[in-house]
Each structure stands twice: as C-alpha cells, then as structure tokens.
Amino acid sequence: MTDRLARCSCGTIRPSSERDRLFGFTDMSRESDWSQKTCRHCGKYEVAHRPGCSTIRPDQYERHTFEPRDKAAEFDSFYCGCRGWD
What we know:
The protein is largely without helices or strands. Helix content is 6%, strand content 9%. A three-stranded mixed β-sheet has the order 2-1-3, with no helix packed on it. The protein is elongated and about 40 Å long.
C-alpha cells in the first residue's frame, strides 16, 4: 500500500505517516471524518443542512440534500509554518 502524502497550502509535501509531527494535520482519506461528514455539493458539514441552522440565510444549504464526499482528496493537509506562527 502506498503511503498518502500531506500538502501545505504553500505546496510543501510530506508523507502522511509523519502526521504526529505535522502541525494541523488533517486526514482527508476516504475513511476520514472529512470525507464522510462534508457535503460533496457545497463542502459544508452535515449540520449546516439542517433546517434553521443558518440564522443569516436560513435556506442557504437546504437547497440540496446532504451527500458525503465519500472519496479521498488527492492530499491530506497540514501547516508547515510558511506564513509564520503568530
């Protein structure tokens, strides 16, 4: 099995096997919470699709039914420190 890779927004790539040493690591594999709890249509969590969840625009995410992504992103994600730590 090939190890997944994690990418920072700046493009730095590290093996996902280093997850314990990667700040802000997010697993984005098919089995992850990210894949199962975010909507394939809008990218919002399932809770955003519940009636009355948004107080600003109550029907914003009620236009479609929540469907999980149910697939892996190309990379997992992390932050390498490229923009500082402040």
